[in-house]
Amino acid sequence: MANKMNKQDIPQHVADSAKLMEAEIEKWHKNPEKVLIENGFHHHFEQSKFTDWCAVSDEGLRIYNLVVSEDEAAVKGSAIAGVISSVAAAGAGSVLESLAMALGVSERSLAIVLEDYVEGDRADAMGMVEFARQVAQTEAEAKAEGKPSGPSPRP
């Protein structure tokens, strides 16, 4: 099967989960009526602990290509890659929007603070006090610049 994950490029826990997922896909290819593959997909993505939607999208495309035949494989920039990418981005966006509504802040502020934290490769937890301080600071900066701040109106 094509598109085996290069273990040098990914964390060990993702590689382990990917190996299990690949084995499940192979079982499914042999007997699709008896193997419920959807649970395996859920488990794999939950275990992978991705922190950005782009990595989810890339892994979604890789898994898609393991499921379909080689002549149906998709590449970045294809329509199916666009669908997978959009679903990953929408999933991430919905979580941020839900948190923003619950906390009474803008999705934009949450995204900025979380992105800075994740991309900063911090090993220590930020903590709620520091998190709240950074979100409040980001909200104040947005308001001063005339950008949206505060929660989005509920639909």
Descriptive terms for the model:
single chain; 155 residues; mainly alpha; 65% helix; elongated; disordered N terminus
Characterise the protein shown here.
With 155 residues, this protein is an all-alpha fold. The protein is 65% helix and 0% strand. The protein contains 6 helices and no strands. The radius of gyration is 19 Å and the shape is elongated. The protein starts with 11 loop residues before the first helix and ends in an 11-residue tail after the last helix. The relative contact order is 0.09. The N terminus is likely disordered.
Task: Offer a quick outline of the entry.
The chain is an all-alpha fold. The chain contains 6 helices and no strands.
Please state the structural category: mainly alpha
Order of helices and strands: HHHHHH
Count of DSSP H/I helices: 6
Q: Catalogue the unreliable spans.
A: 1-8
Q: Calculate the mean pLDDT score and round it.
A: 83
Shape: elongated
The fraction of residues assigned to DSSP E strands is under 5%
Number-wise, the strands total: 0
Computed Rg:
19 Å
Q: What percent of the residues sit in helical stretches (DSSP H or I)? A: 55-70%
Largest sheet: number of strands, sense, barrel closure: none
Distance between the termini: 45 Å
